[in-house]
Amino acid sequence: MTELAPPPQSTGCRNAPILKQRGQREVFCGLTGIIWLHRKMQDAFFLVVGSRTCAHLLQSAAGVMIFAEPRFGTAILEETDLAGLADAQLELDRVVDELLARRPDIRQLFLVGSCPSEVIKLDLARAAERMTERHAPSVRVLNFSGSGIETTFTQGEDACLASMVPVLPATDERQLLLVGALPDVVEEQALSLLAQMGVSARVLPAPRADSDLGIGENTLFALTQPFLGDTHAALERRGARHIPAPFPFGEEGTTAWLRAIGHEFGVDEDIFARATEAPRARARKAIAQASDALRGKSIFFFPDSQLEIPLARFLTRECGMEAVEVGAPFIHKGIVGPDLDLLPEVPTLSEGQDVDLQLDRCRAARPDLTVCGLGLANPLEAEGLATKWAIELVFTPVHFYEQAGDLAGLFSRPIRRADMLALDGSAASPGQKYPGGLGSGPHAGRP
Ligand code: SF4
Fold this sequence. Notes:
By secondary structure, the protein is of the alpha/beta class. It folds into three domains: 19-25 and 285-439, 3-Layer(aba) Sandwich (Rossmann fold); 30-151, Nitrogenase molybdenum iron protein domain (Rossmann fold, 3-Layer(aba) Sandwich); 175-279, Rossmann fold (3-Layer(aba) Sandwich). It has 17 helices and 14 strands. The chain has a six-stranded parallel beta sheet, with helices on both faces. Bound molecules: iron/sulfur cluster.
């Protein structure tokens, strides 16, 4: 257990000043969440009511499944719908009737709003109510927005889970609910660790609509993702109580998260130690190995995934990095407060974005690593800055002890690559490798 020095003492950033900015943003839309959600909910279908652009986004991001019928699709709004010349609600009824007749395996249907459906003010809540009446009890129809007009890409999952909370049955059972879609292997690890502590848990989203998951005043919930603000609020409206804790990234975060749950459920300290000692040791060893390249390096977070604050806590406290700026789309202290408590003082903690001003700050700081969205990564690489795509952090298993080394590795790889390029003299100087610089388009020339 001694491979890493203990994390430094911190006075925390909970009350640090926050630079709040509102301006042009560079983010992906919430439809992205469908890519991981459709794998978690095995009897759900996500019907995006959108444009051909929405269909292309989903298709290219999720790939084409040739071995099974996909569980997402797009009802494309044609020009006649957008111009108000056709009754889009009638069209939608027809599409849904055809879909459900052809796919009797569907038990939950999500109507997912998009920029076009919001611009023409297509009322998907009314459509979902009408369709639920028509297709109940075999199918539950819900709606949420995946529009990119005012959202970041992780808000899609939040909106989806929040839409499910009001329709879950009531229960008085004292229970623990883990909230957030995790890769199956990671979810199993979490449930196994909790079981070793003598705590059983349920999960939202449940794999199937007919699971007996209920919510009530004796439900305690722990978030596994920091971007679930609306779901947090919806659960509290049902009387459930949140267990605040640092998020389970790295050895320290995972231990603190488990300890907070253990405290609520009266887990004895010896039992807690027995359940966590071996995986803690493995995590510390793996982090020590993977974080060699990170020690003393600086990092700058653009706001994107909403994982920024917990990850900055992990990278500064367990991997020896120095955060120059930690930007997050939203800072919900009821959710990330415990991570802020541990985060060492950073020069700039920012919420929201005015991308040109933030790019100026990043260029002035010349960080060793910049975490940002796809649209900024290539241009910044072209200016000689090493980058990490924020979206990878959501697609890769990074939670809990066994993934802690991989999490550090995700950040050390681009730094190693930049070091190697610098050694052989082939690092890009501004404008050389990708001559278009920031005007060259988001995906051009990604190495
Ligand atoms: S929802 Fe909006 S941002 Fe997302 S793909 Fe469709 S049009 Fe583009």
